[in-house]
Design a protein that fits this description.
This protein is an alpha/beta fold and 220 residues long. The protein has a single domain, classed as Rossmann fold (3-Layer(aba) Sandwich), CATH 3.40.50. It is built from 7 helices and 7 strands, in the order H-H-H-E-H-E-H-E-E-H-E-H-E-E. It has a 7-stranded mixed beta sheet with strand order 3-2-1-4-5-7-6.
Length: 220
């Protein structure tokens, strides 16, 4: 059985990037190092998120969806298979290159974009928004701004799904990322007029993230 990629490379690069005053530059560094065989991306696994799959999402029927921090595209492809017109973005150009290479002929519109400075026409433009495991990789100094921005993507009548670490196993080593979100932080996703539908604390046995948040919000 193949073991999961180690988080050590991500933590090493994140620490150096944060020390240099660049809280997000390490994402591109990590993907580029991984592509050259010099690092491992711990979340780069073949299957879509089990916690995403556990949600009873309706068929997309051509409605618009946005996947935040999509990496190589596993969750974006899952959402597209449900019938959504998916836009998926990542701050790392290498991650977007990998997504396009791994999914030739995909209907997903993969783009390089920054969560903290997104295209203005994305505001309230998407019927489904997926934020999976991105905010947990951001330091406190920029986390509140990221949480607020995620909510602005949701169209009237739309849904926001948030998946994030609630705890990290104490023997997993290092100081993060990820940095678990508190319940108070999860609740702040309900800004910009969003309302909570459900906030669940769910188990993830056998992983370095033994409990996780699975939250759903909507814009009336």
């Amino acid at each position: 059985m193949t073991s999961a990629p180690s988080a050590g490379d991500a933590r090493r690069l994140a620490a150096a990037s944060l020390a240099a005053g660049d809280p997000t530059g390490w994402f591109e560094q990590l993907y580029a190092a991984s592509r050259s065989g010099q690092a491992e991306v711990p979340w780069d696994v073949p299957a879509p998120s089990a916690h995403l799959q556990s949600l009873d999402l309706p068929a997309g029927d051509g409605r618009r969806a946005l996947v935040v921090g999509c990496g190589p595209g596993r969750d974006a492809e899952y959402v597209a298979a449900l019938g959504y017109r998916v836009t998926a973005f990542d701050i790392s150009a290498t991650a977007i290159d990998l997504a396009r290479e791994r999914h030739p002929g995909t209907p997903v519109d993969y783009r390089v974009a920054d969560l903290l400075a997104p295209p203005t026409d994305w505001r309230r433009a998407f019927d489904l928004v997926l934020e999976s495991n991105n905010v947990q990789a951001l330091p406190t100094a920029i986390r509140a701004a990221a949480i607020h921005t995620v909510g602005t993507f949701v169209a009237p009548g739309g849904t926001l799904i948030v998946l994030a670490a609630a705890t990290v196993r104490t023997d997993s080593g290092g100081d993060g990322p990820p940095w678990p979100l508190t319940r108070a932080e999860i609740d702040t996703f309900a800004g910009d007029g969003l309302q909570p539908v459900s906030v669940d604390n769910v188990g993830a046995a056998g992983t370095t993230l033994p409990t996780r948040w699975r939250a759903v919000f909507t814009r009336p």
